Amino acid sequence: MKITMLGTGAALPDPDRAQSSILVTLDNGKNYLFDCGEGSTRQMVRANINPADVGWVFISHLHYDHVCGLPFFVLSSWVFNREGRLQVFGPRGTQDFVDHSFENGAYRVDIQARAAYGVRQKNIEAVRPAVTEVAPGLIYQDEDVKIFVDLVEHIPSEITDCFGIRLEAEGKVVAFSGDTAPCEAMVRLAKDADLLIHECTFPESFLAHRAKSGVGTYSHTSPLELGKIATRANVRALVGTHFGHFDSTSPVIKRAAGNHLPIELMGPDLMEEVVRDLRKNYAGPLRLAHDLMRIDL
Predict the structure, then answer these.
(1) Is residue 297 part of a domain?
(2) Per the structure, how many domains does the chain have?
(3) Rounded to an integer, what distance in angstroms lies between the CA atom of residue 41 and that of residue 128?
(4) Is this structure's pTM higher than 0.90?
(5) Residues 100-107: contacts with CB within 8 Å, 24+ apart?
(6) Is residue 210 part of a domain?
(7) Is 65 a catalytic residue?
(8) CATH number, domain at 239?
(9) What is annotated as the active site (predicted)?
(10) Is residue 185 part of a domain?
(11) Residue-number span of the structural domain to which 203 is assigned
């Protein structure tokens, strides 16, 4: 299988990273998308993947940097002549998000206008995603894959669920964290995985700063804690992703981040700190993700 890191950034618009999105392509050509943040569709095209050829989307949670690209992806797939309905799996609230996005929501006028043309009316099912709101356990299975989810710790549970994900296909196992604080669920999901793709949003010092500031969630996993998770789960390889702009040199990003990050510490050199902290608890194969990075398993 091939894994393409479409987007490796976090919530802010970043000149160097699209928002969270990962594409898994099996050897038979089937495509499974995990999260769909801003920029994910454009990144697919850059990676020579037709959006209409992606049949399944799995949403880890409903923070906007993980779902705001879904309407654009659906509408683009329609224009790219998708056949049939997209299958969308996500936490409670996903159906409401989809209902408010398409024919009965934000893009109602656009869809009505384009559907006046026969070629668009012919594949109108492409803008009617089939949504399944899921609970922990096996959520999807076909002749090629099994996909499991479990609850992780990020958004307060009274608002909605957040999931980590485990994919089993072609004799391989890939685990994906979504966003989460360190938790036992990720150790279980990643147990003996060939690859763990895990958020590593902020260095230790930045998480402490966010906890004190009270602006935004600090329910993320530091490099130190991620190394412990990877070692305890006995993963064969680790990819850190979902970097929270701490490495940015953009003046715009720094101004926006000023109330919740120690901007005087920001810069590319922090990636070296991330690696040093990961290595304190994890000795296996390690990569820090960048957009359009390809991983072959």
Answers:
(1) no
(2) 1
(3) 18
(4) yes
(5) 101/70, 101/71, 101/74, 102/71, 102/74, 102/127, 102/128, 102/129, 103/127, 103/128, 106/71, 107/71, 107/75
(6) yes
(7) yes
(8) 3.60.15.10
(9) 65
(10) yes
(11) 2-290
